Amino acid sequence: MKHFKILSLALFFMVGSMHLFAQSEDDATGLLGDNFSLEGALEVFKNSSSMEDFETQLNNEDKSINNLDLNEDGDIDYIRVEDNMEDNVHAIVLQALISENESQDIAVIEIEKTGEESATLQIVGDEYLYGEDFYVEAFEEEATSKSRGPSADYKINRVVVNVWFWPSVRFVYRPNYVVYRSPFRWGVYPRAWRPWRPLSWNVYHGRRFHYTRSYRVIRTPRIVSARRIYTPKRTTSKVVVKRSKTVTRTRTTRSGNTVVRSKTKTTAVGKNKNGKVKAKKTTKTTKVKKDGNKTKVKKAKTTKVRKKKRGN
Fold first, then answer.
1. What distance in Å separates the CA atoms of residue 75 and residue 66, rounded to the nearest whole number?
2. Which contiguous run of DSSP H or E holds residue 128?
3. C-alpha separations of 3 from 9, 14, 261 in Å
């Protein structure tokens, strides 16, 4: 009986681990932005006392925000912070150092002061890393009901957070605030910072997952003026642009004793007559059916060309 209980517990944890593994595979988009948590960036920004503090926390290994190795040199890329301010609007750029001559914008934190004690904030991922129109914002849940009493039927709504009371937001709107420009560049880093090896997706996903609880992804910009401030200053790297041309997505599903793994690879192959990017899409599906000690594998491969919605 004792051995049976131990075996049962082992099977329980093994199945649970397989379930988490499948979930993490499904959550991967195949885009370069999989390895940088926009939610995590907002969480540390929210609690930072200054812009210097924010840059330090972004590059803290223990925070599990950054897992980017865009130049594929085997080390994590350093992320520097550059603020751009005009009137009541900030466009705070998070930029990876790729080489002595190249940098790549990862995301932009957009903030607009909308009243004496109110401000709106979003972070938008660069389209070469996250695709088009990928915004993340903080939200709160609010319960509303048309009736009252213990039998009232409440509806839970998600509302945008007023970020004015975040320490970091109050900091950048101080009367004596000096627009922040990171003093660091390729080869010149903080004394306390040392690059580390990138983690595998499954390990990194597990560490950054808790950041997603208070944030949501939307496709609509709320601070249009920030785009106008930032766009002329956008910085991209040829290395990253080339890597972004090919996107790989992997998805695993289970039905009974059958495991289905689909791996889709999308590669840009040129432009059509209207100037839109065409892409070659290849999907490889593997079915593994466990029958006792036997394993049967079935593979299927399809290829087609479609319009690609990402940037050039």
1. 11
2. helix 127-130
3. 10, 16, 34
Mean pLDDT of the chain: 82
Q: Which of 35, 30, 31, 32 is nearest to 249 (CA)?
A: 30
The phi, psi pair for 242, rounded to 5°, reads -65, -45
Model pTM?
A: 0.74
pLDDT in tens, 83-111: 999 999 999 999 999 999 999 999 999 99
Distance separating alpha carbons of residues 155 and 270, to the nearest angstrom? 48
**Residue 12 contacts by C-beta under 8 Å, 6 or more apart in sequence?**
none
Phi and psi at residue 67, to the nearest 5°: -130, 25
Q: How far out from the chain centre does Cα 182 lie?
A: 22
Residues 286-304 have pLDDT tens digits of: 877 766 544 555 555 555 5
| Spatial separation of the C-alpha atoms in residues 46 and 40, rounded to whole Å | 10
Tokens representing 126?
Answer: 């660069």
Q: How far apart are CA 32 and CA 93, in angstroms?
A: 17
Tell me how many helices (H) and strands (E) the chain has: 8, 11
Half-sphere exposure (Cβ direction) of 201: Cα atoms closer than 13 Å: 17
270 alpha carbon, distance to own chain's centre: 27
Query: Cα torsion for 260, 265, 271, 275, to the nearest 10°?
Result: 70
Average the pLDDT over 65-83 and give the result: 97
Decide: 310 and 127 in contact? Cβ < 8 Å.
Answer: yes
The two three-digit tokens of residue 249, written as one number = 């997505």
Distance, in Å, from the CA atom of 254 to the CA atom of 108, rounded to the nearest integer, reads 38
Q: How far is CA 33 from CA 38, 112, 137, 143, 232, in A?
A: 9, 25, 16, 33, 22
End-to-end CA distance of the chain: 63
Nearest to 80 by CA among 167, 180, 179, 178: 180
